Amino acid sequence: MKSDTAMLSLRGGADLPTPGAQSATTGWLPGVTSICYGGDYNPEQWPEEVWEQDVALMSEAGVNLVSIGIFAWGLLEPREGEFDFVWLDRLFALLHSAGIRIDLGTPTASPPAWFFHSYPDARVVTREGTVLGFGSRGMASPSSADYRRLSTRIARELARRYGRHPALAMWHVHNEYGAPVSECYSAASSAAFRTWLRARYGTLDVLNAAWGTAFWGQTYGSWEHISAPSATPSVINPTQRLDFSRYTSDALLACFVAERDAIRAESPGIPVTTNFMAGACPSVDLWRWAREVDIVSNDHYLTAADRRGHVGLAMAADLTRSVAGGRPWILMEHSTSGVNWQPRNVAKRAGEMRRNALSHLGRGADAIMFFQWRASRSGAEKFHSAMVPHAGTTSRIWTEVRELGAELGQLAEVLGSTVTADVAVLWDWESFWAQDQEWRPSEDLSHRERVAAFYDRLWRDGLTVDFAHPEADLSAYRLVVAPAAYLVTARAAENLRRYVEGGGTLVVSYFAGIVDENDAVHDGGFGAPLREVLGLTVEEFLPLRDGEQVHLDLPGMVGDVWTDDIVLHGAQVVARYVDGPAAGQPAITRNGLGAGSAWYVSTRLDVDGLAVLLGSAYQDAGLEPSRLPAELEVVRRHGEHADYVVAVNHGDDAAVLLQAGVDLRTGRERPEHEVPAGAPSCSAPRAPRRPRLRRRPRTRRSPGRAGSSR
Question: By C-alpha distance, which of 429, 420, 548 is closest to 485?
């Protein structure tokens, strides 16, 4: 039967597996030896007679893992210190009898009403001084000692009761740290921030130097004078804001670690995770967080307004896999159809849910989960789609849920296989926190826009991408792209220089290497730490007016938003500006260094313009675009005994994948595979298949921060 995806096993000619990759026979969660399938289950919203119906439907749909208890603190501890686990005992027994494994959540993302009544100082305070009330989702202040104490206690009590239950496969601490709020500007937060600053700087003299407090007369003579950077008459000290972002990520992480350690003490050997929102929740540094979880998990929801949302999905999946150090990961939440919290909540078309799920699978997910199992009749998310929708089991969505469960049940051999990339895109939360502050040279400087544009170009060219911290080992990659590298440390600059000298190809976009870790302009001027590797410096920024464009002397190349006044120090000019404030000056350069090369582009090119730039960089790197039909997504996973190819057609026209292999759904060997049209959004002519690339010898590496261990 034709479908808009293909799942192939390429036996006999597989690459060697990545060291550390798990075999499907060993399992990766206790008692789980297949792709996990299920979602958030909230039976407390329904009478118990519905529970048995739910479990029967789960079995029909192939569900083997559900997340429970995530928002149940008020039921589990109806009054402070009084615990009621009777209903949860019955739920455990019911799920266990059906062979469904449990991901048990700690309910600490939503403290009960009694908590906020008894501990009003634990409420979150906004930067403007507004105290947020009860009645929504979202955690208390991460700096609150009372919140930390009581959230750790409920986690411990749950672990004591269920930590050795045979149905338990995993622990799920909290829910989406940093969403919907992360920063808190309460008195407790200011006090905790001061403690954090003392640990970071040691003395006020060091802090004053790092923050540049001589500017605007901000010098501190007492630690007690420092507070959280709440709203001020003008722009507050940017380094203070940057440090508060670092502190906030660390404070949230400390909350997780406290619960995790309480659980581990009572439930040894059961993995602990928390659901990230990679790329969608900017307030947590996931390079640091990933070292603290046993398994990385992520939530992803399509941006309904984005007609190319499948590319954003792929980007989030690649970022999650990279944060996981290349290991398989869990898609903890996505939606069967529309969500309820965007301005326009577009429903997924027939087959789109399946394409989304298999795209995540192709990019390394070994679990495909949803929010939520049964659609809620009440509350803020009653219009959010679910595995069992309001329309019930006669609906198209339910049919697709059952079909997807059956298909995933056939793919157990894919479990534990990994993804290898030839290209790394640099991603640094600290740099983004710094760049996104006020009073930058142009409000059109968007780190996310540039990362997304470069990623889209790489996706169209059929190249698989890892994300990496600028200080990480980059030697395994042929090409490294730095779309938004505003903050560059001396260590990162040296790392990039070594990478290029060793034979790598580096592409750097504008507004790069501007400040150090304290958000201070580098000694030596703009781009100073990258001067040697790029062979140039930027003497002055030349941002453009709204709507203004500049033309380059390469056919069809047009830029906007930004230009630079560049001074060359050995770099060769690839393209010059024809007009605009930098007319006649370099626009794109290439610098040879050691065995490699570094490219610099000083204006914003659209996705088509980036094809020209990256096309030349690909030649340096020994890469080439895939030549596959446009909108045909093809990703390869590497297993111990076989490779697996996942092909997803997002276009209007059927495509032929010229790849011999075994169709995992039918078990038949086929010389090629037709992948019928998917969502009606794009169309493209056919093109020849991308040839298999030779790979450089690889060493095992984590794309995260250099020196980290996972």
Answer: 429
Say how far apart CA 408 and CA 667 lie, in whole Å: 14
Sorted by sequence, the CB contacts under 8 Å of residue 13 that are 6+ apart come out as 643
* Weakly modelled stretches of the chain, pLDDT under 70: 1-3, 11-27, 679-710
CB contact at 8 A, 37 and 367: yes
pLDDT, tens digit, 9 for 90 and up, residues 407-461: 999 999 999 999 999 999 999 999 999 999 999 999 999 999 999 999 999 999 9
CA–CA separation, 197 and 193 (whole Å):
6
User: If we measure between CA atoms, which residue out of 540, 590, 574, 580 comes closest to residue 558?
Assistant: 580
Task: Give the span between the Cα atoms of 612 and 590, in whole angstroms.
Answer: 14
String of DSSP letters for 134-154 = SSSS----TT-HHHHHHHHHH
Amino acid symbol at 540? E
Catalytic residues: 176, 333
Beta strands 423-426; 479-482: pairing state:
parallel
CA distances from 404 to 60, 353, 535 (A): 11, 9, 52
- Contact between 167 and 41 under an 8 Å Cβ cutoff? The reply is no
The full set of domains in the chain, from first to last, is 1-31+52-62+296-418+635-655 (3.20.20.80), 64-272 (3.20.20.80), 423-621 (3.40.50.880)
Token digits for 187? 């008195």
Over its C-alpha atoms, the chain yields an Rg (Å, rounded) of: 26
- Regarding pTM above 0.85, the answer is yes
Return the number of other C-beta atoms located less than 10 Å from residue 166's C-beta: 11
* 156-161: Cβ within 8 A, 24+ apart: 156/262, 156/263, 156/265, 156/266, 157/77, 157/83, 158/69, 158/76, 158/104, 158/106, 158/263, 159/262, 159/263, 159/265, 159/266, 159/267, 160/266, 161/85
Query: DSSP labels for 460-492?
Result: HTT--EEEE-TTS--TT-SEEEES---B--HHH
Q: How far is CA 67 from the centre of its chain?
A: 20
Token pair, residue 419, equals: 């993804």
- Enumerate residues 6+ apart whose C-beta is below 8 A from 667: none
Residue type, 337: S
Q: How many residues does the chain have?
A: 710
Q: What is the pLDDT of residues 476-488, one digit of tens each?
A: 999 999 999 999 9
List, for residues 313-351, the tens digit of each pLDDT value.
999 999 999 999 999 999 999 999 999 999 999 999 999
The one-character DSSP state at 431 is H
Find the helix packing angle between 48-61 and 396-409, rounded to 10°.
60
Pairing of strands 101-105, 65-68: parallel
How many angstroms from the chain centroid is the CA of residue 17? 24
* HSE-CB of 539 using CA atoms within 13 angstroms: 8
Burial bucket for residue 249 (CB in 10 Å: 0-12, 13-18, 19+): buried
On the CB side of 407, how many CA atoms lie within 13 Å of its CA? 21
